[in-house]
Every structure is written in C-alpha cells, then in structure tokens.
C-alpha cells in the first residue's frame, strides 16, 4: 500500500462517524469551533455522540453564567435530533448563585435525546446547588453520576428509568426519605450527607454491588437486597457514634443520651439485615461508631457469605462482635481482620463470652488473616479461639502492618485500608513462634486449659469492675491537649491540591489556658478532609460547614477560629478569627509551611432578633468570654 504524501488530507479520508467520534472528546465550545476548518466540518459537531459542557477550573461571574446558558441552549436547539446521543457530561467550575446555570433544563433535554450516560460534576464551592425535585423520565438512561449537588425525594425515585443500572454520588447532600429503583445494580455513595430524621431508606431489590464510604449524617437503612453479591461499608464521621465505644464499651441502647443522633427508637436493623444475602462483605468503622454493634441485636444469618473483612470495632469487649459473626456465617471461607493499635482499656475489658461454647457455624473456613500494627493481647486471643476450635495453625496468617485508618487513600475517599508492611524483628518472630507453640500445647491439654481460662476470666472480670468504678468517678474523659502534641508534618502533602485533614472542635465547652497556650479538650471533635483547601473561598468553607453541621443560617450564626502560633521558635497556641478568603488561604499555607496541626474551633450562636436591632440595640454580637479571652489568659499563665 503506497504511503500517503505529505500534502494529503488524512483526516479528510475518514468517514463522518469517525470524525464525530474524535470530536466527542473535545469540550463543546472547541468542538463547535472546528466548523471553521472546512465546509465539510461545518455541521459535524451537530451529530456528536457525546456532549461535554465544561467549565472546570474557571470562575463564572453573573455575565459568564448567562453567556454559558445562551450558548448551550442555542447549541441544543441546533443539534441533529436524529443522531444518537450516547452520553452527556456537565462539568462546571465555581459560579455565582444569583444566576445559576440552567443545568436542570439541559438534563431534561438530553434525556429526551435518549442519552444513556449522564455525568453532572459541580465545584465544591457550589455544593448547595439543588437538582430539580422532579423524577427523571427515560427508558434509555443506564448510568448516572453526580457530584456536589443537593438531591431530594422525587429526584431519587427512579421508577421512571427502567434501564438505569448504575448510580454514583460523591459529596452530595441527600435530603430524601428513600432511594428507590427496581433496576439499579451498582450503587456508589462517597462522602455524602444523608438525612437524619427520618433516616434515608435505600430500596434497591436488584442491587448487585454496594459501596457506602464515609457518609455524614445518619447511616441510611438498607432494605432487602436478594441479588447482592458484594458490599463495602466504611463509617468514620457519621452521627451514629457514642463516647462509650471509645472506652472499650458497647452502645446498644436505642435511647442512649450519649449518642448524638441515635434515632433508633423504631427498633429496626439499619445495615446488616439488608446485607445478609451478600457473598463478600467489607465492614469498616471507627471504634466510636456504634451502628454495627447495635445491629448485632438483630443479627441475621449470612447464608451466602464466603469472604468477610472487619477492623478493630469487631474485637472489642472480648471479641463479642467477631464471635457473633462467626455464629451466623455457615459457609464462610476467608476472614480478614485489620487491627490498629487499641487503647489500653480495650486490652483489659472482658465480655461475657464462655470459651467452652464453640463459636463457629462454618465448617469451610480455610483462611484467617490478621493484619495488625502490634502483636498484642487481641491477637493472642484470636489465635486462642481459632486454634481451640479446630482451625489449624497453618490456616492463620499474621501480618504486621501499619494501617492508616484516619487518612483517605485517594480523592475518592476510599478510606481506611491502606497497608504498609514493615520488617518483622527477630524478637517478634520468636514471640509469634512461642505463641503458636503454646496454642498447640493447649489443643493437646484442652480440659486443663479451659479451667485456666475460667480462672483467668474471673480475674479479668474483677479488674474490669475496679476499672468501671474508677471510670464512674470521672466526670469527663480529657484527651491530651493539642499544645502537648507534636506537629504532624506528614498530614500536609507537598501537593496542595490533595486533601488536608482538619480537626473541627464544636459544641459546648470552655477554652482552657496552659503553659503552651489554648487547650480545646472540653469541646467535641470531628475529623474531616477538605480537598484543595488552599484554593477554597471562605464562603465555600462556611457553606460546607453549615451543611455538614446542619446549621440553620436564618436563625444561627457561625464564627470560625483557627489555632495558630506566632512564636518563631517553639509553639504557643492562640486562636485567630477567620472572616475572609485571604485570611483563610493564608492560614492554610502557613499551617502547611510550619507543620501546625490543622485545628479549627467553631463557635455557633443564635442570631439577634431584628426587632432588637431596630429598637437601637447597636451592640455587636460578642464572642463568649471563654473564647475571646483565651489568648490573653494564656499569655498571663
């Protein structure tokens, strides 16, 4: 075949369908501009199979939004309706809320054009944008992906989309009582805020795969999913947490006053009942999250479950939760436990489990993997239980790893499962070998071993009673003050576009003063990540906090203080108010440069009545004396 000469038009030799496919990778304005290349190109863009309405990285003022609306509306009217439309992507940067893009109108139009895939990605600065509260109607839509939008009841009723199979939501506010679809097979919800009163119910009978990662608000209720194969649930900062869990205790009380948003008076199983048909489960939670332990009161039988992954929440209180799972998984083949280093009181607390009772329902358990930071008492007890009841030592694998459960592994918020395996020392190898030898001897001397276990348990129960008496005399648990913690330089990556981890202190409390400055240990603390924090506007950060902490902007106000140190050498912590974008961005940059802990104090207050203002009360809203005088008193001390 002769090679084409340099002057030949290679693109001109391609058919129209190939050129339209190439154009579909371009943003819409650039694709339209190709009409100026030649007469043949003039109308090719009208039949592109993919539309990309993009403005990512740009800030649209009011005029820019209006120009975008006119351009897209005009283009949609000129497009060839007889041409197929496979997908539409709407990806916009920051825009002013006074004149929103006509996104809902564009969505309705592309659905009329029988689009199969639809992506709507907005900037986190516009995460209060509400999708139209009307049900989507399309017989062709198969995949829907949404980011940084507000979704309400009717929009999440997909009964009129019989072909929809995949739904992905990221950083969305889900203000709906129910997510309903008869056809949906794959659901992914990452870093979304769910409704609390009542809990959002997920009714997806055809679901095959579920991913629920780091939800805010109350954990949604999962209804029956008979087709479910795999599910991954990762709970970190949801409202379903209780201080008792952090002390090695258990919260299974529906009316617990210590739980921020229990709301469980209905007595329903929230998660486990809906997951009971799965073949593979990954259940990750921080110790303070009680929802998994509470669900164990109604623990169903997982008749199809073959692979199970749990983390440290399952081995507190004498492995009660772990044993409960083992008793309800008759065909389990592989069990993986990821354990971070636990508080000392977790090692000392014991439950009511009787080791003479066989906890295993499965006769097919082949592999038990334990990934831990330290070879501690929990690992000893796990090996003891499995070896005592017929699991061969060769089937138990111990991997010493550094497990990061606080910091997400990527921008998707995939969460707490990143492992890094350090070398195991000779002493640890010897300790592990000694433990295995001990387990083998115990298998041979089971009667004497059981008697020793009973004696050991009785001693630990007495110690537990002593610890409970001491704990009852303590009014509050006081964590080490921030001023005594060393700076965590590894929290601040060199790439400022990645997610930074902040500690937000809120609620009632007093700002204490000590030798190293202010101390916020009396306040509640929540850890959250902010992507590209140094690029966010102050208004966007405030709106994000108002949404996350459910503050009513009509009646309540919010003041933000950052913990900073003005000392060139050493650290003396002070509170600095943040009230504009310049101060916010400068604070984030300085914190990363000087390795400060990213610590924010949120002061929430009731706004003054407008009638009082009209009557001449011109005194401004003052800070609480405890907050306002924190720096001066710290200096004096």
Automatic annotation (TrEMBL):
One Pfam family, short name: F-box
Domain F-box: start-end pairs: 8-54
SUPFAM superfamilies listed in its UniProt record: F-box domain, RNI-like
Signal peptide boundaries: none
Top-level taxon of the source organism: Eukaryota
Location of region: Disordered: 406-430, 616-637
Name used for this protein in its record: F-box domain-containing protein
